[in-house]
Amino acid sequence: MKNRLFILTLFLVIVSCKAQVIGTLEQFEECQKRPNRDEGCPDLDNITYVKDTNNRLNQFVGIWKGAYNGKQYEIHFEKQPQWGEDIKWDRIFGRIIIKDNSGNIIYNSLNKSLTEAGLLRGGNFQNRVYVMHFVGNYDCLESGNVFIETRINNPNEMTLFYSQDKDGLLNPAKCPNFSTFVPLLPTDKITLIKQ
User: Fold this and answer.
1) Looking at the domain assignment, is residue 22 inside a domain?
2) Whose CA is closest to 136, among 92, 102, 96, 100?
């Protein structure tokens, strides 16, 4: 009986190990640089897990603070391994609290779960820059890519840049102040300091 149990356990371990095909963030980053990237990357089709094998995401983990245009930004970055459904990715998520100069909270996603809107959601690297996506007030077309990068000579400083999507359907009834709407994230490059 013990022999059968051992063989069954060994078989299950072997099958589960073979079921997961691991790729790296670097492989997918390289794929985006290919001239035929629109055709996909057939060599990466069977990958079930995109792993941060070199721990490149760890540089972003922590609490980062900065100020811009009368607003105080505090972003809590955390690394989530094996996030996703069909293909699992190691990703960075960012929860944000934004205050005005008087300390009044303008926006707070610190208590949101990783499945809710309003967080920064990691994608992958473009050279040294990590690209994330953000959706704030979608009715006012507030969504786009966020680019973060730590400085080579000072890893406790990070630059952040938000590129707001220009395409989308605007419903003036849901965003009546669109002409004066100011995005939560700055569309100019800002510096954040690791706390």
Assistant:
1) yes
2) 96
Opening angle at CA 37, ends 32 and 40, nearest 5: 105
Distance CA 105, CA 93 (A): 21
**Are 4 and 69 contained in the same domain?**
no
Cβ atoms < 10 Å from Cβ of 87: 15
* One domain, residues 161 and 67: yes
Residue 111 exposed, middle or buried by CB count within 10 Å (0-12, 13-18, 19+): exposed
What is the domain extent for residue 114?
A: 58-79+91-194
Q: What is the pTM of this model?
A: 0.83
* Cα distances (Å, whole numbers) of residue 168 to 139, 141, 144: 9, 7, 11
The number of distinct structural domains making up the chain is 2
Quick: pLDDT tens for 115-162.
998 999 999 999 999 999 999 887 788 889 999 999 999 999 999 999
